[in-house]
Amino acid sequence: MKPKATLKQIAKELNVSVSTVSKALSNSPEISEPTKIKIQEFAKLKNYKPNNVAINLKNRSTKTIGVIIPNILNPFFAKVFSGIESKANEKGYNVITCISNESLEKEIHTMDMLSNGTIDGFILSISEETQKKQEFKHFKDIISEGIPIVMFDRISDEVNCDKVVVDDFDSSVSAVNHLIKLDCKKIALVSSIDNLSVGKLRAQGYIKALNDNDIPINKDLIIRTDNPDEFDFRMQELLDKHEIDAVFALDEHTSTMAMKLAIKKGIKIPEELSVIGFADGVWSRRMTPSLSTISQHGVEIGEAAAKLLIEKLESKEEEYTYTTTVIKTELRQRDSTKKL
Amino acid sequence: MKPKATLKQIAKELNVSVSTVSKALSNSPEISEPTKIKIQEFAKLKNYKPNNVAINLKNRSTKTIGVIIPNILNPFFAKVFSGIESKANEKGYNVITCISNESLEKEIHTMDMLSNGTIDGFILSISEETQKKQEFKHFKDIISEGIPIVMFDRISDEVNCDKVVVDDFDSSVSAVNHLIKLDCKKIALVSSIDNLSVGKLRAQGYIKALNDNDIPINKDLIIRTDNPDEFDFRMQELLDKHEIDAVFALDEHTSTMAMKLAIKKGIKIPEELSVIGFADGVWSRRMTPSLSTISQHGVEIGEAAAKLLIEKLESKEEEYTYTTTVIKTELRQRDSTKKL
DNA sequence: GTGAAAGCGCTAACAT
DNA sequence: ATGTTAGCGCTTTCAC
What we know:
6-stranded parallel sheet; homodimer; DNA-binding
């Protein structure tokens, strides 16, 4: 285990000054060819790598982005994360990741730990608890410290910053319209994320689509909760008591459970029941029948967020107007809906 | 946007020296109560946070771990990652994450970018390409630079470092034994990860279990490839040509595709065909029928790896013996296998 | 009890 | 063409 090479050591061993070494290694024209070559070769021999921490201190910037993700097991977030990581790397940035586990406290703690020079800016999606409690002071504080934030997916109108979202409302409208075109009349709405901003937007889209098509809203066909276990129970009840010809599901848990319970009851999908759900990841394809989904292009969301943040970090503008980027979703027709 | 408070500024505003401020804020007994209080209150008022980069430079350590994950969309890796993140955070470490995307070049590039003081050590799982090419020089180089590495899951015997793995071989043996106890005689082995170390170990376990039970190995019932598309084709063929009563699948793709194709053919699971597969994540539960799995306790693997690395980083021992920790798997019986 | 000074590793303005 | 110096923000030893 060799001791780390530093400019100082190299300078001493070569009997030159530290700054000569520094300049030689950055190929400065100030230094003569022969010394340059001598120093560069010696540095390579010693496997010299400039200490990044020292450079960060000098530059007052770390080229590192702090990313806060509510739950990395959710394939949507995993996709966004991979988009952030790849765009950041492309631009020469590192990514420090924290998983908030949907906890407000962890979110606050993380932002506090990292906002001391460790990172140049944040990309985050608000935790469930934070959205429930509508507690956004920590975001505002960080921003007023001059650390930029880009929010994605789960955002807050109260916080002034760049945002990247999906057109949740419109996606819902068009998905439900699609079901209506398929001749579905009794479309159930199911959600186990009714505490999230995105869950509410999606539910509103359903209402809008039914209204537009003069279909009366039937409360009995709507399950909106934030508790997956409660959902399972109510879904069973719904299938037992009411006849439905479609399910519009706002999250992965409800998409898959609705299908599972329907299949168990012997209901044929898609012949007797069409199912469309918000879902990401490969699993919707792997199910039998495969699930028709609204896919959110997570990778693009991540890339857009990273691009936005890095642009902001690298612009010298004092004034900056905040933008909200909308990434379009895509309706992927698979085997849980009939073909038009 | 307030300018960041520094010791220097506080010192000037309070007409004391930098070192006094530093000591007062670290509650040193050298400083008198009144000045301490004055300084501490002023610092709080100014929202002073010690610059972490400066501290890192001083300490020659960053309390940051570099994590390299082949693919974060794989729920096994996502679980391991969340284990690493939580254990690291508990111990006061940050985590810089890179996704190698199974690429050797990205792996090398990442390790090069981070091994300049940015991180104190690495936790990683070897990329597919790296395993295929058996190219391990970059790992050895990093270790010889004095940066510790902990490998998990996809490891190499050629590299001398701490490791955390699953008992792939034994898990396979006992899973296949379970199928045999269920009275299965014609057990297919399917794998689309035959290029990975873990894939090979699991396949060996299958052979061992059949041998132990005096069941002849039938090559026609074995599909081992590293190409998912090729697998789909050969699986269809296998189902068409041969009668089988069980499938033992070494990865998620083959577990789910085997089930999907069998269901499509009208084969009843588990009555006519039992399926066990290596799988993680919630999706095995959500399938119809739910999939019996060998679950790998990804979170524990991540925690163990982080613990190992941090212990190494914080021990002053010059000499250190490398350990390989084995995390036991668990056979989760669900609806794709009959109950005993 | 307080302060000056050195040093972590590097860069860059400013000598020589 | 090379070297000296100061400084990034902090801690710590050593003077006073």
